[in-house]
């Protein structure tokens, strides 16, 4: 999906190098798994985390930068993301990811467990090669832990009809925003920006990550199946109650209670009713407000970065990514 | 199971500290998972990897040692081991481990995936705290990768009736011997032994690990169910063909072919027939020879270590662990 970056040719080139490094590092003896990993990389997402990393690196001191180090760190971010995706797909029993069969559906949960683990080790290799001895080792370990605690928290909340907005925001802060924050922060840090900019980058990344996940969860309630490339309301059926539903439920608990009670026994028709009810009771509308607030916070902080073409491009990207459907 | 160490009171005390540190570090918000993790730790195995680590540390320069650092590294070894166990149990669909329900059977595969991942992150935390900037970071990452490649290799060989002894030895070298080798090596290194002793320690650990895994695989063919605390011939039913079977098959392929062909459809009665055939065709007897060779290599190398009460104890332990049933 590097075509997403057609208007950002410098970034696109750098992401191509990330893609090559992933393929180079993911050497497994089993040819099936090897193929699946390469297919997953290529069918891949937008490489958003490495992209934000490079944007923030470009804001730094170009003369001091080491392109090989930057490429490895950018790659580590995508690998950490991929590892969690492979494991997520086991949890969700997902047949598809980005329109391509998941590792777990093609090879079984067994292979998917170890494949995810292997991606973690390659992630680990790369950060050791690039930042061993720096404080960023511990920051990475901390981020990885936050990511998993976010996922565990989300799982522990499954089918809980008393789920709160606060708990949801905590979960996505760990499972999504943490990695966006790390990407922007490391871009600034290894791009040799000042400590203040590094701190700003971490905050901007966190806000972008929060908005991004909320936006993603909104899509579950507004997209057609073909567009989403995954089954409609998969999260709801799995007992993962996201922001639009939580907000609609807050003001109208009785409407939703019968559906919650069915847990995984809910039918497709009932899931579609829930979808309509969430829209009817302004769940989507209110969730968009949350997303917009996080996006605006991000955009305002971007405006405080040093003026440059990169800042402009970063603002454009953030806008394009997060408010295209408002 | 720290009673195993009753005759080694110094080691037993140190392992108790490892146990406490594991409990301290495994703080999860979900109380069920928290309990399961603590139960797993306490019901735990023999803590062999930390124990070998401490034995080798004791051979070093005691005055230069930092007990807190040593405790953390010993703990990291057990956590890495536990992480792979939690994920292994998913693959094997195991109901029991050490006579206690597995995480996957109590909470489902979902929780087990993330719980294993979380153990990996706590392992990372500990090694970053204790050896950031040292070459041992990369050595740890390498070991973790070897462990997973060993498991992946074993999985890719499932139900393959043409499995070779060589391939088996490669698998167990990764999935088991690697971590024993790391434990002994790190004990020597962080105990401030000489580079020569560190290298010897790594070799001794590898030989002990190989013998230990072969011995474990032999038990599948010689133990009663109660003794083993897991279903008889679980590995065979899962398509994991270990050394006793591979050796018996080498000289009598036709005898075993009909059983291989049934794959996971094999009945309990048939599994018991295989067990008898493996014994009849000297699979167990020959596998014991392999185990004995690795054990002897380990013991000979232990004899070359500097003479000390620890060396004596290490020799006793290795003998007790690996040749008790010959």
From TrEMBL, chains A, B:
Gene3D superfamilies, per database record: Farnesyl Diphosphate Synthase (1.10.600.10)
Domain of life, per lineage: Bacteria
EC number per UniProt: 2.5.1.-
tRNA-binding recorded as keyword: no
CDD domains associated with the record: Trans_IPPS_HT (cd00685)
Keywords for this protein: Magnesium, Metal-binding, Transferase
GO molecular function term, any single one: transferase activity
Pfam families registered for this protein in UniProt: polyprenyl_synt
Cofactor: Mg(2+)
Family to which the UniProt record says this protein belongs: Belongs to the FPP/GGPP synthase family.
Protein name according to UniProt: Polyprenyl synthetase family protein
Lineage, broadest ranks: Bacteria, Bacillati, Bacillota, Bacilli, Lactobacillales
């Amino acid at each position: 999906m590097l075509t997403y970056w057609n208007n950002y040719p410098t970034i696109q080139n750098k992401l191509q190098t990330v893609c090559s490094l992933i393929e180079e590092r993911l050497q497994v003896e089993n040819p099936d798994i090897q193929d699946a990993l390469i297919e997953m990389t290529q069918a891949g997402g937008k490489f958003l985390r490495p992209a934000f990393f490079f944007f923030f690196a470009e804001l730094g001191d170009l003369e001091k930068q080491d392109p090989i180090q930057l490429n490895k760190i950018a790659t580590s971010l995508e690998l950490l993301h991929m590892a969690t995706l492979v494991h997520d797909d086991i949890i969700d029993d997902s047949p598809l990811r980005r329109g391509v069969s998941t590792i777990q559906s093609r090879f079984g949960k067994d292979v998917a467990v170890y494949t995810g683990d292997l991606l973690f080790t390659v992630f680990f290799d790369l950060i050791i090669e690039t930042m061993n001895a720096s404080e960023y080792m511990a920051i990475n370990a901390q981020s990885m832990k936050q990511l998993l605690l976010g996922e565990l928290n989300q799982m522990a909340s499954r089918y809980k009809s008393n789920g709160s907005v606060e708990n949801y925001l905590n979960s996505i802060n760990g499972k999504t925003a943490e990695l966006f924050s790390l990407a922007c922060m490391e871009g600034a840090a290894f791009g040799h920006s000042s400590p203040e900019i590094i701190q700003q980058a971490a905050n901007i990344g966190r806000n972008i990550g929060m908005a991004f996940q909320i936006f993603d969860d909104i899509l579950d309630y507004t997209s057609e199946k073909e567009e989403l490339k995954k089954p409609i309301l998969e999260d709801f059926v799995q007992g993962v109650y996201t922001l639009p539903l939580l907000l609609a439920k807050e003001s109208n608990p009785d409407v939703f209670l019968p559906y919650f009670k069915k847990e995984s026994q809910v039918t497709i028709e009932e899931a579609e009713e829930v979808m309509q009810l969430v829209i009817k009771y302004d769940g989507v509308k209110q969730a968009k407000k949350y997303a917009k607030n996080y996006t605006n916070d991000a955009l305002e902080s971007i405006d405080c970065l040093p003026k440059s073409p990169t800042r402009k491009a970063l603002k454009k990207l953030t806008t394009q990514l997060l408010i295209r459907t408002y």
